[in-house]
Amino acid sequence: MSLSGYNLDNKTKKGLQNCFKRVLKGGMHGIGFSPYVEGQKPGDQLSEKQIRKRLNIIKPYTKWVRSFSCTEGNELIPKIAKEMGMKTMVGAWLGDEPEINKKEIAGLKQLANDGIVDIAAVGNEVMYRGDLTEEELIAFIYDVKNEITNIPVGYVDAYYEFTLRPKITEACDVILANCYPYWEGCSIEYSLIYMKDMYNKALKAANGKKVIISETGWPSEGEGLNGAFPSEENAMKYFINTQLWAQEDDIDIFYFSSFDESWKVGAEGDVGAYWGIWDKNEKPKFYNNTISFKRTKTFLKS
User: Fold this and answer.
1) I need a labelling partner for 152 at 20 to 30 A (CA). Which of 6, 137, 196, 292 fits?
2) Quick check: pTM over 0.90?
3) CATH superfamily name and code, 28-301
């Protein structure tokens, strides 16, 4: 594998689809779980039925599942995932509302004490959004660490935040770095090199601690950002090269994300709704189930 990944430009769309499906069938380390069905958004109550249905879809393809909240039904995600034999990275969603933060932290502690959390994530991009001060976030991290001593505790943010905020890095047992070449306007041709650089910057800041890429992905639709352009072909190329690099270099990656979610259009612009491997109706986006193949090591020859 070259620094920039495999050259997939000479493939037909059918060949790219076959390659994507082979890599997906080979399995991922982890994936970010998208629980909200069409018409739902954060704040709505999630049902066990919808969570179980979606976890059943992704289970054949991933060892780990990542959840983002411990309230409003999200606490069912790690419970059901554990029941299905998956490992869990469970997040407490922290923002600028103290009462919600209190409930999220209490929920994370309870889930961990129940033995269904393998990695605890205290907050997601809180520094990036500016919802809390650095001191407030660190206090939450140590509060969780004081009660949860048998599993690693970390914080999720953009890779560069761990360089800029050494006190947060020091507080974490594990560094959970979001790495998105797309959001920095990188073209698909150089996206893998760019992500490797992001990862290596987080690795340097970690000072010996384990670094996990907690999110990375590429949208399949929407307007571009500088040199980065959403398309089904680019999304497939990015997934293939990301997963093969992760396997080759033994990097733990949680791909983002499992399902398209329409509510994210408002939060992230038009690309926000199109990060899933499956669409909003829970159908595969990049291949149809009539594509068949034999599992071999020659997956790049289609």
Assistant:
1) 196
2) yes
3) Glycosidases (3.20.20.80)
Burial of 291 (0-12, 13-18, 19+ CB in 10 A): middle
Residue 6: closest CA among 174, 178, 260, 238: 238
pLDDT tens digits, 118-168: 999 999 999 999 999 999 999 999 999 999 999 999 999 999 999 999 999
Residue 249 region by backbone torsions, left for phi larger than 0, else alpha for psi between -120 and 50, else beta? alpha
Determine the residue type at 5: G
* Tokens matching residue 180: 């998105």
Residues 6+ apart with CB under 8 A from 92: 69, 70, 101, 104, 105, 107, 108, 120, 121, 122, 123, 140, 144
Residue 154 tokens, joined: 């970390």
Segment 215-251, tens digit of pLDDT: 999 999 999 999 999 999 999 999 999 999 999 999 9
Which among 123, 216, 201 has a CA at the least distance from the CA of 160? 201
Instruction: Let me know: does 132 contact 96? Beta carbons within 8 Å.
Output: yes
DSSP 68: -
First to last CA, the chain: 17
Which residue type does 55 have?
L
Strand partners, 156: 124, 176
What is the residue whose two structure tokens read 């919802």? 131
Beta bridge partners of 90: 67, 120
Sign of the Cα pseudo-torsion (40, 130, 177, 267, in order): positive
